[in-house]
Records
---
Amino acid sequence: QVQLVQSGAEVKNPGTSVKVSCKASGYTFANYGISWFRQAPGQGLEWMGWINTKNGDTEFAQRVKGRFIMTTDLSTNTVYMELRSLASDDTAVYHCVRDWGAVTVIADHWGQGTPVTVSS
Amino acid sequence: DVVMTQSPLSLPVTLGQPASISCRSSQSLVYRNGNTYLNWFHQRPGQSPRRLIYEVSNRDSGVPDRFSGSGSGTDFTLRISRVEAEDVGVFYCMQGTKWPYTFGQGTKLEIK
């Protein structure tokens, strides 16, 4: 079965960076992309960006463009996201989500979420 | 960006009764291939969202048939024929037709 397993919770100081991993299993990794979403406490869902796992093409939300990086490791079926210059409003649960690539599918399977707390 | 507007934002429902959520987009969600990438998600408290419906009206595997989606263009609806206790949580519509993906504000369903 499709599984996306994310790395554990993080606590970071403002101005630093956080890196979260997302390991996929149960499907042909290179046939699908990965999107990242986040959800601040008590708030709705926000899409942050998408990566084509096969060729590395990316799309970004304007709000995080320039400080949000996504990379992919085809040898381990893992996608990484890094968010730099953290501020308190980056405190959220971050989700990796299987998304379209060679196969057209939108956000069908979600990781368990990684809580990131930004606090001094 | 495509603005998604859901209503109502709060939905108290008696067990066994039907429920309906509306979602409107600020632009047509028909993609150049003719498909409409409007999805519905359900999020229980403390859990990750789960996709229920994709491309307006297609139920995901394992989703009970009491959930149905309909609509076209800019106007969409999620219907629950008979609400059950496990339906408590927040329902979101999301468009995947145009970058950036955008969500409705969420509709919180509670049992009366």
---
Amino acid sequence: AQSVTQPDIHITVSEGASLELRCNYSYGATPYLFWYVQSPGQGLQLLLKYFSGDTLVQGIKGFEAEFKRSQSSFNLRKPSVHWSDAAEYFCAVAPDYKLSFGAGTTVTVRA
Amino acid sequence: DTAVSQTPKYLVTQMGNDKSIKCEQNLGHDTMYWYKQDSKKFLKIMFSYNNKELIINETVPNRFSPKSPDKAHLNLHINSLELGDSAVYFCASSQGANGELFFGEGSRLTVL
């Protein structure tokens, strides 16, 4: 069965600084990988996805993620964080209809 | 127009009661889901319907019964509510099994 691990429960970053969120997955074949963001009191929104091809994928809101098969990782990055990026971030893997989420990383942005 | 809409947004009820949450999507998707998010923000899939057919039914108590009258609607009925049912329930939709889900804003259920 597939699983997703997000090692960081909470990250605090200064506005304007770079952000990196870690995600490791466990899956037997090539997975479909996703990052979703949940703003307070809201539903989840897809930031970006990886299905195949170029291992560096670009998403919305200036985010990017890199798939590294050798490390079973799909880390999310943003070069310069804005206060509006404060949210919960979920990594997910989907071999089929059953999208499995990691436990999430809470990002706090300080002024 | 809201793509995936859920009603009600908040639900406060007593143990033992029965309640329903409704979900509608106007994206033309063929697959709909119910996810439960607990107090630690962990998301777990409960059910999924594809073209009105149940395709995922996780280990959820029989008190939970989904119903999909058509591709655009997926409702969740919960009988004999328990304290542990308190959570945020998210409806979502997708086109096929590509994992690109569109989520509603959630329905926060509080059981007293």
